[in-house]
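Fold this sequence, please.
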Amino acid sequence: MNTSTIARFARHTGAVAAAAALAITLSGCSVLQGVLGSAAAPPVRDAATQEITESGQADVFSIQVGDCMNEVSGDTVYDVPVVPCGEPHDEEAYFEHTFTVAEFPGDDAVYEEALDACYVAFPAFAGISYEESTLDFYPFTPTKESWEQADDRLVTCMIYDPSARTTGSLAGAAR
């Protein structure tokens, strides 16, 4: 990465730190909730396109690329508020990355690899480089608990507009 990329990435990393902590909480709690039984129903999807057709609460492990959701809050989150992308929403899943190592590499290594994977995938989805974009991203990452108890190796990259809610997909937004 060049110097301006590193500077923006550093600003981005600070802004994303809270989201990353929540993302870690989301993944880890989902494992525990999965063991106990999730209260959330799977999202209602179109049979042909797999797009979410009804707003509702979904287990964080059910999120797929192309899904839209609203921001979550709280220290312990098992479910996420999903919505059809045609409705106003806060963020969208745009890429998935799977770890290939067997042993949990540690929270910092997981987060850094997740950031790198989301950063690399950003321009192909957004239609513009991250440095030129007004959009931002953060990763949902596996925790040590989800890695060991549920064989969770999946990172889900979430894109969002920090200045406003979005209606429709951010795919190819080029902003």
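The radius of gyration is 16 Å. Residues 4 and 54 are 41 Å apart (CA to CA).
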